[in-house]
Amino acid sequence: MVKISFDVKKFEGQTIKKIGLSIKSDQAMDFKAINLGEMTLTNGQKVAPIALSDAKVTDEAFEEEGTVGGFRLSWKSDANKNNFSTYEIYQLNDDGSKEFLGASNINAFFVNALKRGKNINSTKFEIVPINKAGESGHSVTTSVKWPDNSLAKAAFVADKTLVTIGEKVTLMNQSNLASVKYKWDIDGASPATSTEKNPQVSFDKAGSYSVKLTVINEKGQEDSVTQTELITVIDQPVELTNFALNQSVQVDSFTNESESGPKAVDGKLNTKWCAVGPGKHNITIDIGKSEKINQVLIDHAQKGGESPDMNTSDYTIEISKDNQNWTEVVNVKKNKLGETKDSFKQTEARYVRITATKPTQGADTAVRLYEIQVLGQKKADKGL
C-alpha cells in the first residue's frame, strides 16, 4: 500500500471538479489494475489516531457440519466524534494475507456465513480503526475455534416404515460428511447386512424390526445409531389413512382467517396456513383419538404455486398422546422440496406438532404450509 499527499493550497477558494492521477513505473508492471482505497481532503491539521482494545467473539453459530459459521465481534475504542471515521474488519489467513470482510460504524460487527477453509481449525479476525484523515490506528485481533468435524456421526431414515412381506424399504443415510464407510445391520431383513450407502432391503416375515448403522471416518473412528423396531411388516397390504383431514388444529399465529390453521388440513392445495413474525412457528393437529401413525406428508409453498425460495428449510415433527409429553420423531434441515414425506417408527399418538425452525430458504420468517397429512394404519385393520 502506498500513501501519497499533494499540497492543494494554491486552489484555495476555488471549486475542484475533477482530480486526475497519472501513474508511471520504472519497471514493467505484471498486473492489470490499481485500486484506489481512499481520497481525503484535509486542512492540514493532524487528526488523532484511534486505538482499540479488548476484542472478543461475543456470539457464534455453526452449521451442523461445522463448515460454515456466523460470528459477532465486539471491541473497545477510544474514538470520538472529532477523529472517528470507520472500523474495517479483516480475516487473517495462515499465509500472511488478509481478506476484507466489511466495515462498521459501531463497536461491533457480524461475520455472516463464513466458509471454513480446508484443514482450518481456527480463524483470526483483525479490527482496524480508521480516523477522519484516513489513517489506520492501533488494531486488535480476536479468533474463533471451529468445531471438530472430523468425527463420524451416524444418522439415517427409512423411506417407509410400514410395509408388507417382500416389499422394498430404502434406508437413507444422513450421516455427516466425515463418515466415509458404512455398515448396516438389519434384523430379519434380506440382506441382513450391507456396506452400501443407501441399501434396499425386504422382509419375509411379519413383525417389527430394528436397524443399526455404524459409520467410520478416515481415521477409523466409529459411531453407531440403532432405531429399535423401526420397520413394521404386515401380512396384507393396507391403504394408509390420513388422520389429519379436517381435524382440529392449534397454531402459534396466523395472518388472517383465510390463512388460518384449519386451511392446512382441509384437503385443498389452493389454501394454506401462513404465519409471520420472528421466531419459530408451529401447528398442532388433534387427530381425534390415539391412532397408529408412521408418516407425515407436507405440501410447502412451491406445491401451492409460490416460489421455491418459500419452501420450509428446517422443521421438526413431534407426536404425543396427551398434548403434554412430546417425542420428536423427525428433524429436517436444509429441505428444498415443495413436497416432503417423512416416515418414522409406527407409534400410537393423538397429537402431531410441526415446528418450522427455519420457515424459508432465506431470511423471510413467514411459514407457508398448504396441506399436512398424518398417515397411518387404522386400528381396525388386520396386522401388527
UniProtKB/TrEMBL annotation:
Pfam families xrefs: F5_F8_type_C, GH85_C, PKD_4
Superkingdom, according to UniProt? Bacteria
Residues in domain F5/8 type C?
226-377
> What Gene3D superfamilies has UniProt attached to this entry?
Galactose-binding domain-like, Immunoglobulins
Concerning CDD domains, the annotation shows:
PKD
The chain positions of domain PKD read 152-238
Q: Can you say what this protein is called?
A: PKD domain-containing protein
